[in-house]
């Protein structure tokens, strides 16, 4: 009898610490949701590889992984052995349990120790280029020669993907609800499930997106260039353009960085289309990343100089009408240059959209009918990598001296930024909430050379 009691006591002592940690993690997630005006400070970066000892700088000692054999990966209740490829399934808490469709998760678990990299695509269901990037990358990996682990989530927002929609079935933008709340709205529950079941197992994260609302983006990384760890990570992608973009609360990238995971967003192309050139750029950049992380040799290494843009603005239409562009993605433009025109199709009056400074076209709206204030062209000001690194180090030093949180200093330029507190979409608003017709105000004729307004607000698409 005594022997039996001692065995039970031993089992409880072994199980209790894990159970207690799980409760603490849930409480931390709820606290982050409740403290909107006091976001949690970022944790130190995750360890470079599983089971490594971590130094005070957040980096592992050089020989810490050579003494232990490679261990199996435990993810989503399944075990993936070293040197193997597996398809797992994640079922977000979103629908009836009896008819829920699991989301496929692709895992390449290398035979050698190394970092764990996660790739997520189609957080917005109409963004197809990232899905194809994940497919190509995952199925060209050979786990027997891979150091570390690559986890690919080709279609995060399965409902949106089926409907060809950016949003979840409840018309919420999933990328405004991370890290989520297991007792919150449908979007918040999906975000919580993805973040806690998959993302928190990552050391690094690349979240794949495209432009939105009939806009296209030059292949680019969005990264917080005031975070030295993120700057160092962004340099591993080869010659892809890098755009400074502090995270916005609710974005997957921002939640990951705040949890100690080094993360960037990759933007390439536009929604509801598959663009071979954009996909190839993205695949080449991530192949270069894998080589620079010493995970595998790249078949196409990208060693070109990396254009870095610390400042950028969307130039907006001064009037409504038909937009016709006169520039292309990646074009260099000069201050005062005409980027495009907007013309009223009835009165034939129009206005030119003018470049506010010298720069490069990083994003643009396709030719279409636009309203006044519509974001039409994104122009970036280029800086050297050395300038960006020096600025990041100086910012980190100043924040350390003042005790500030560097993640919450600035509001990024986000064209599609939506928060739960924003008004419902127009087709869901009551009639009394609809703006009054423009016919009640006198029509103004726009000058043919009126420059558009520029505002540092929003950023397509993330």
From TrEMBL:
Gene3D superfamilies: Zn peptidases (3.40.630.10). It holds the Pfam family AstE_AspA_cat. The keyword Nuclease does not apply. Keywords: Hydrolase, Metal-binding, Signal, Zinc. Residues 25-68, 382-462 are annotated as: Disordered. SUPFAM superfamilies: Zn-dependent exopeptidases. Residues 1-20 form the signal peptide. The keyword Glycoprotein does not apply. CDD domains: M14_ASTE_ASPA-like. Residues 113-291 form the Succinylglutamate desuccinylase/Aspartoacylase catalytic domain. Its cofactor is Zn(2+). Residues 382-405, 416-429 have a biased composition (Basic and acidic residues). PANTHER family: BLL3975 PROTEIN (PTHR37326), SUCCINYLGLUTAMATE DESUCCINYLASE_ASPARTOACYLASE FAMILY PROTEIN (PTHR37326:SF2). This is Succinylglutamate desuccinylase/Aspartoacylase catalytic domain-containing protein. The lineage of its organism: Bacteria, Pseudomonadati, Pseudomonadota, Gammaproteobacteria, Oceanospirillales.
